[in-house]
Amino acid sequence: MTFERAKPAGPVEIRRRGLMLVLSSPSGAGKTTISRRLLGIETSLVLSISATTRPMRPGEKDGADYQFVDHATFDRMIAESAFLEYAKVFDHQYGTPRAPVEQWLAAGRDVLFDIDWQGTQQLAQATRDDLVSVFILPPSIATLEQRLKTRAQDSADVVARRMAKAADEMSHWAEYDYIIVNDDLETSIQRVRAILLAERLKRHRQIGLAEFVKGLREGA
User: Fold this and answer.
1) Rounded to 5 degrees, what are φ and ψ at 201?
2) What average pLDDT does range 16-24 have in this prediction?
3) Could you give the percent of the chain with pLDDT greater than 70?
4) Which CATH architecture group holds 15-48+109-217?
5) So what's the pLDDT on residue 147?
6) pLDDT tens digits for range 167-212
7) Bridge partners of residue 15, in order along the sequence
8) Backbone angles phi, psi at 6, to 5 degrees
């Protein structure tokens, strides 16, 4: 009696689970500018649109910059566990809706978050394996203050409040995976892209990798 060797089933497809890229910084350190540039370069990167109770600023669009909701709606979403994270910042509430993020990650898309250290702590508790956190520091306090004044989005009183809060925000730098000093915008963008590339290649994000290697060893 003779036995035929089973034919290899063919290579197993390796898919990648998406990751959550968090950029945090004190206001004016450059995270929003870096975020916008990344979204224009990295085709697999999508922006997590936060819900907020703060008023819409000139030029902003509902559903594109934020989901603008009232306090009652925000509180209902908290009660329904509809947020991955939420926090109160400068008298207004901000939160990350859970459902779209989970769908993007499962589909292999990377999700960009422009949130503060409080939100990052909550994400770390909820989904640490998916999280990649980057804290962006200004090159100096004088530069930070100048950037806040130059962008002319806030009153002098708000600028003063943001500067007062900056020291507390920067004290959380050690809680992040990566630190970037944003003294040159183009360099900072390339450093974040390098972080993205390395994190995308991590073993635990490669779905089907074990089966692929098994197939290689068996001659598939």
Assistant:
1) -90, 0
2) 96
3) 93
4) 3-Layer(aba) Sandwich (3.40)
5) 73
6) 889 999 999 999 999 999 999 999 999 999 999 999 999 999 999 9
7) 207
8) -60, 140
Q: Structure tokens of 86?
A: 């939420």
Position 153 scores a pLDDT of 63
Rounded average pLDDT over 151-164: 72
Under the phi-then-psi rule, with left for phi > 0, alpha for psi from -120 to 50, and beta for the rest, what region is 111? Answer: beta
pLDDT in tens, 32-51: 899 999 999 999 999 999 99
- Report the DSSP pairing between strands 20-24 and 131-137: parallel
Rounded to a whole number, what is the distance in angstroms from the first to the last CA of the chain?
Answer: 26
Which residue would you say has higher pLDDT here, 139 or 131?
131
| CA atoms of 64 and 60, how far apart (whole Å) | 8
Give the closest residue to 136 by CA, choosing from 172, 87, 90, 110.
Answer: 172
Are 130 and 191 in contact, with CB atoms under 8 Å apart? no
Closest C-alpha to 33, from 112, 123, 121: 112
What is the domain partition of the chain in residue ranges?
Answer: 15-48+109-217
Q: Are the C-beta atoms of 149 and 57 separated by less than 8 Å? A: no
The count of C-alpha atoms lying within 13 angstroms of the C-alpha of 207, restricted to the half-sphere facing its C-beta, is: 9
SS (H, E, C) 79-143: HCCCEEEEEEECCEEEEEEHHHHHHHHHCCCEEEEECCHHHHHHHHHHHHHHEEEEEEECCCHHH
Helix (H, G, I), strand (E, B) or coil at 208: coil
